[in-house]
Amino acid sequence: MYYDILPETLKTLRDxxxxxxxxxxxxxxxxxxxxxxKENGEGKERTRDFVALKIAESLGVEVGDLGKSIPEExxxxxxxxxxxxxxxxxxxxxFHSIKVLExxxxxxxxxxxxxxxxxGPDWNVKALERPRPTLPTVPAGPIxxxxxxxDEDTLLQLLVAWHSTFGEYLVDPNRMLSDPRCSIIHEIIKxxxxxxxxxxxxxxxxAYLRRVSGRVVNGHQILMSSTFDCEMWRLIKSDEL
Length: 241
Known about the structure:
With about 240 residues, the protein is mainly alpha-helical. It contains eleven helices and five strands, in the order E-H-H-H-E-H-H-H-H-H-H-H-H-E-E-E. It has helices at about 5-15, 20-30, 30-40, 50-60, 75-90, 95-115, 125-130, 150-165, 175-180, 185-190, 200-210; strands spanning about 1-5, 45-50, 215, 220-225, 230-235. The termini are far apart.
């Protein structure tokens, strides 16, 4: 199956997230040249389904929307809200996450009141009694991990446990974080300086992996290997490293 992708729609959606072409490619697990080609309208061929689906999923839209010429103002508000919420969640910013959710809750309550719907006893009334919230401004930009947040002792523990569990096979971080058999690795990840109050944030963990990619620690080295399906990682262990 194939899908159409309009260059102007793809670029507008990407800009709403404040993402570069490289960032969108990483989120979708595809090559940056694919994004460049689609935004430049190079070639008339339609896009393979698995590529279009990955792009749409990353941008939070239906795959068919990528082929629609939608006026920017038609999807400005919902895309803005989704971008804000996704950005603050990726950054582990609890304060702004609550503010964005308050904004969404207020307007949801307002819409339910107009439609004469109710989610529970006095739910919408209580929400509408609050002062009208404003959508907070959240700084754009990718997650950055500083050198001081590396902690090589914990990193080495992570790499040793990783190698003990997976050897040198390719690993999908998302699946690893949801696999109960990796409980030892999970506990080590919770101790990484970038994790807030010992809780695992998968976006920060993936940013951490990108920061330490290529670094050699006691004969261990972790490297990224992107595929069409997802971002995969391989651990190499050698006395020569």
